[in-house]
Structures are given as structure tokens and as C-alpha cells.
Amino acid sequence: MCAAWPHKGSEIVKRHRILLLYAGGLGVLLGVFALYLHPDFLVTLANQVWACF
To answer: For residues 44 and 37, is the Cβ–Cβ distance under 8 A?
Structure first.
């Protein structure tokens, strides 16, 4: 690091952390969308959850 950019390393880490959070959120959304393409799985899951009560 040079003296002109004393906090550049922490800014890069912060940007990578934010990018990782967005990528994780997008992954979760795509996973939920993929589950909606298999309605039989959702019915089975709902039946299993309902059986707990």
C-alpha cells in the first residue's frame, strides 16, 4: 500500500464482502425459483411440515 491510498485494502475487502452477499442472495432466489419448477417436491415438503402439527 502506498501512502496515497491508506484504506484501499479494507475497501476492497468490503466490496468483495458485499459482492459475496449479493451472489449468495441471488443463489437463494434462483434455488427457490428452481423449487417452484418441481411442484411435487413442494407438495411433499408441505405435507411433511403439516405432519409435524
So the answer is: no
This prediction's pTM: 0.58
pLDDT at residue 40 in the model: 92
Task: Give Cα separations from 21 to 6, 16, 35, 37 (angstroms).
Answer: 25, 9, 21, 25
Angstrom CA distances, 30 to 20, 33, 34, 49, 53, stand at: 15, 5, 6, 22, 29
Yes or no: say if 35 and 42 are a contact pair by the CB < 8 Å rule: yes
Q: What is the pLDDT of residues 1-31, one digit of tens each?
A: 555 566 667 787 888 999 999 999 999 999 9
What type of residue sits at position 21? L
